[in-house]
Structure formats: structure tokens, C-alpha cells
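This part of the workshop introduces the protein records we will be handling. Getting from the letters to the C-alpha cells is the skill we practise here. An example says more than a description, so a record of this kind follows:
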Amino acid sequence: MEKKRYKIVVYAISKNEEKFVDRWMDSMSEADEVIVLDTGSTDKTVDMLKARGATVHIQTVTPWRFDVARNISLSLVPNDADICVCTDIDEFFHKGWRKILENAWTDDVSQAQYRYTWNFTSDGKEGVVFWAEKIHARHGFKWTHPVHEILEWISPSPMGRKIAVQGIQLDHKADETKSRAQYLPLLEMSVAEDPDDDRNMHYLGREYMFKGRWEDCIKTLKKHLAMPKATWKDERASSMRFIAKSYLMLKNAEEAKIWYMKSICEAPHLREPYCDMATALYTVEEWEGVIYFIKCALKIKERPKTYINEESAWGSLPYDLLSIAYYKTGNFAEALESAKKALEYSPNDSRIKNNVKYIETALQKIEKG
């Protein structure tokens, strides 16, 4: 029997995205329709989208909220669409995504997860990678939260299956010049609207950390950890790590170590707590501790599918720290091996290159007696 063909519609919001339009439209052209809500572009975004075949609606959203904008854009999708695909203009799918999605989708599916690379390193390698879930059935969903918005099932009927679709890859290559200034007030608004939402409390504490508001970060994330709904160990461990970092920045190294250990105990299956602990010990030259915790991190081979992962823990950092710690403890052969491994992950890093040469010279002197 021939596989059913579904009507697939991509929808998005835009504002001053002209530098990304062509790449995005090339990627989204596999859909049956592309619909964009433009919220006030002053560049060529709207004209470029229309020229490439997108249906563009223009409407300002005041005061600005991401969920309101997403819901307006979703409302513009025809009612007879089977599958909605929500992306941002600075994202793009790898070719062939439609066929993979259509082959995986069945009439009893409501939502699909897919692999998403949120950022890339300076040498083009993947940074933070997780599984997103912004592909969904046309009816039954709405977007919620002013920022870090998520899809919520609102239909009185039971939600259908959620599937993980192997083979779909969405990349995000953002405009780094755009400001994140709106995120903090929107997160504060989100927490005020729903103070029992643990996810937003975590995001707010993290945003305080990004802004260098260390005491606010500690206070907010301790509140997150005390919430009855805050049961996801990965996110709890991240809150503990961010609390630890804030204590470090407040020159309270001992309290930071306590919180890093709490994070490790909370989620021993994650690399990041071990790497953070090793980094903290590196700053005080506790080399044996660095070696121990990095070895623990490197035993974890599988990168998690959630957003709780950081590029540093899966790049050169563990091997870089290990090489330095081995060198400081007189284990030059192990130091060289680790430094070369770090260089494989960061081949353009001049410091690591110099470390390799330095350790090689030290080994040669030892061998010559």
C-alpha cells in the first residue's frame, strides 16, 4: 500500500531576517506551504519571503510576547493542514526532511521530536545538541509562556502519540548581533504569571546567571530546587551547577564545591557536573582532583537528547584539563596523549598546539636523560 501523503505546512515569525531568508526558504521548500507572520521588519525580509513563495502576514505584537506571536502565526495555518512545522528563520533543515517525516507520521501521531543543533563552535563543529519537538498536528495545541515558549495540549480529547523521528536534522545558525535584552523581563513576567512552573523558574535563575546577577541566581535556583514539580534530575543538576558558579563568582569556593558535588550526585549520568567540578579544582591547582573528575566525565559516552548539555563538555575541554593536570603531576606521556586528543577537537587552538609542543619537548629531554 502506498504511504499516505500528508499536507505539511511550515509556519514562522520574522523580524529583520533578510540575511537568512534564502537559506531558510531553500530548506522549507519541501513543505506544501510556508506561512510567515512578520512582526515589523524594516529591511527586505517581507519582500524576499514573498518573492520566494511564502505567504506573509504583517502584524505587530504589543507588548511583545513570543507565545502570542506564535499563536497568531499558527492561526494562519489552513485548517486542513495535517502537520505543522514551526521553525525560526535562522534555522534550516537538512535536505530530505519531508520524506522522512511523512514516512514516520501516522494518523494517531500528534507531535514529533527531531535532532536539533542549537549552535556551532568557531571551527564549525556542533555545540549544544538536543531533540526539539516543534512539529505537531494542526489542531489541539497552543503556545504558552512569554519566552522559552512551549507547545501545550489544550484539546479535551487525549493527545496522540509523540514520536522521535530519526534522520531529521535542524540546524540553528543565529545572528549573534541580536540582543537578548528582552529575555530577562519576559522571564520575570512568565514566573509572575505562573509561579508554580518549575521550568520557567529554572530559566529565570539561569538568565540571572547570564547577566552576572549572582545573588539573584542563587536565590531563584534554590527556589526552583524546592518546588514540588522540579523533579527532572538533569535540570535540577543544572540549577545546582549554576548556583555553584555563582558562589565561585562571589569568591566562595568552598560553597561552590559543595554545590558541584550536589550536582554530580543528582545527575551522575551527565558530563557537565564533572567537568565543572574539574574546572573549579583547576583554578586552585588541585590536580589529582582534576584527573579524577575528568576521568569520570569521559566514562560517559552518550550525549543526552535533552537541551541539558554544553558544547564544552563534549569538545576539547575535558582532554585539555586532563593534559594540564597530568603534566603538573609529572605524567608527561599521559599529558601528551590527552593534549593531542584535545587538539583533535580544537585543531585551530594555538594554546593547545603550543601545549602539545611544550610537552613533546619535555618528554624528549626526559628520554635523553
